Amino acid sequence: MQKLSFGEPFIESRYLEGDMGFAVSGAAMLLNLDEERDIVIEGEYKLPPLQAMVVRDAVIDVPGKALLVCSLGTLDLDDLQTLDCMRKGWKSNYELTHLEKHRGVPFFKSPRVTIGNVTMNFCLVSEPGCPSGIHREHPAPVRELHVQIAGEAYVDLMKSADPDSMYASLPLTAGITHMPTWNADGVYPWHRYRTKTRSVFLGVEIADE
Amino acid sequence: MGMKFSVCTVDRPLEAVSPFPLRGDSYEQCAAVAETLGYDGIELQIQDPSKYNAKELRASLDRHGLGCSAITTGLAYLFEGMSMVHPDNKIRMATVERLHRQLDLAKELDSQILIGYLRGRKSPGQTDEEFEDILTDSVARVLEYAEEIQTPMVLEQINRVDGDVFCSTERTMSFLEKFNSDWLLYNGDTYHMILEDKDVPTAIRRSLSKLILFHVSDVGRQLPDDKHFDFHEAAATLKEAGYDKWVSIEARPEPTSFECTRRGLAYLHRVFG
């Protein structure tokens, strides 16, 4: 078990690898980062690869890799001081890219952490009804997941880069992620992340081993 | 002018048992949050100052309008086994040398170094006098450099469970006073006072000539909840004395780092403000 600091002071997280019989205290989001092996909760329920769920005061067996986001539910995105601190403590998209199209976009990102082939960061979207850019390419071949930590959101799938071509919406609520959106060849449909309420999500990119 | 409010911060992942409320991936990030909440300063846990760029740290604090209440040194004890009373003279001298570099960093930040755990523990069979003799030698070596660069070194009282000999305010102050130096100062800490000082207002008054940093921390290193200890009485004693230096929140980051940091400042404003 490795404690991580990339979400602090707002979000406490731990990386687990080959941790059998790990006791989770309180409510936490558990993300299975392994692409082959299930995580077993309380000896009976199986969390499949690349899926997430909320666990509470449970013993988990992690034969592969997992991320645990602790103190789930403590982040109050309706509290303006919390929002202010997150916006100051994390970097806006514009601060990170200096691209004109990102100026004023209410996406704020925590530092990134890379462990092996997995890179993660948290992202605050401080406005409801706010979409990310529509895209289907990624800088490198990765399996991309959005794990909802606070608030409600969607991952929308489109036929083209036109938002009116949306054909599916994968709802996200705190503690879960969507089904993989890539196909067997690693090709994605056009997609975007869109908030319903103010949200924090965990962006996960898994590269080839 | 009133007291200046600070919070203990750390820029690396530590378990919640470590009483540093404000956690982050960098001190820049901690400073941004502390500024937004309204703190006057932050306290930095520095294991090895050579890993930091002092001018960048200074610029970061300046950018956020914050002071540095102390450079705290105990991580070198926890993670490297350094100690000012280590039986191995080479380790003892390396610890002294490390503290010189901590002083350099503190000077750049217009701050002071805080020595708690790094002073070390008694060896098995060692008498209090032997422990004091060795610590006296190490303190003198660090103090000589502190005086040379005119940067304070601060010693913390530590209760008998976590430390040896210099547990009460009286015992710690007596030790400090024998060096007869304005650059050797005192850190009072309610967590230790609760356990070691029968009369806390008297202990605070005893320490005033050297008190430069006051840690606020309840039983079990929790945030104050007014159930275990009379923080109001401690605050009144400081106010009555016109104390206008640092008061810092040192508590476990519960329920979360952010909430602890925010509630800590609200408590300081309410009781010490």
**How many DSSP-defined strands of chain B?**
9
Specify the overall morphology of chain B: globular
Give the second-level CATH assignment, the architecture of chain B: Alpha-Beta Barrel
CATH classification, class level of chain B: Alpha Beta
The count of DSSP E runs of length 2 or more, i.e. the number of strands of chain A, is 16
The helix/strand order of chain B is EEHEHEHHEHEHEHHEHEH
The amount of helix of chain B comes to 40-55%
Main CATH class of the largest domain in chain A: Mainly Beta
Structural class of chain A: mainly beta
Distance between the termini of chain A: 21 Å
CATH superfamily of chain B: Divalent-metal-dependent TIM barrel enzymes
Strands of the largest sheet of chain B, in order across it?
Answer: 1-3-4-5-6-7-8-9
Strand coverage percent of chain A: over 45%
User: What's the helical proportion of residues of chain A?
Assistant: under 10%
Question: Helix count of chain A, per DSSP?
Answer: 2
**Chain pair with largest interface:** A-B, 22 and 26 residues
**What share of residues are in beta strands of chain B?**
15-25%
Q: Number of folding domains of chain B? A: 1
Counting DSSP H or I runs of 4 or more residues, the number of helices of chain B is 10
Layout of secondary structure:
The complex is a heterodimer of chains A (209) and B (273).
Chain A: E1 2-4, E2 13-23, E3 27-32, E4 39-41, E5 45-47, E6 52-56, E7 59-69, H1 80-89, E8 91-92, H2 93-97, E9 107-109, E10 113-115, E11 118-125, E12 142-150, E13 152-158, E14 166-173, E15 190-195, E16 199-207
Antiparallel strand pairs in A: 1-2, 2-7, 3-6, 3-7, 4-5, 4-7, 8-9, 9-11, 10-11, 11-16, 12-16, 13-14, 13-15
Chain B: E1 4-10, E2 22-23, H1 27-37, E3 41-45, H2 54-63, E4 67-72, H3 75-80, H4 89-108, E5 113-115, H5 128-149, E6 153-156, H6 169-177, E7 184-189, H7 190-196, H8 200-207, E8 211-216, H9 231-240, E9 246-249, H10 257-272
Parallel strand pairs in B: 1-2, 1-3, 1-9, 3-4, 4-5, 5-6, 6-7, 7-8, 8-9
Helix pairs in contact in B: 4-5, 8-9
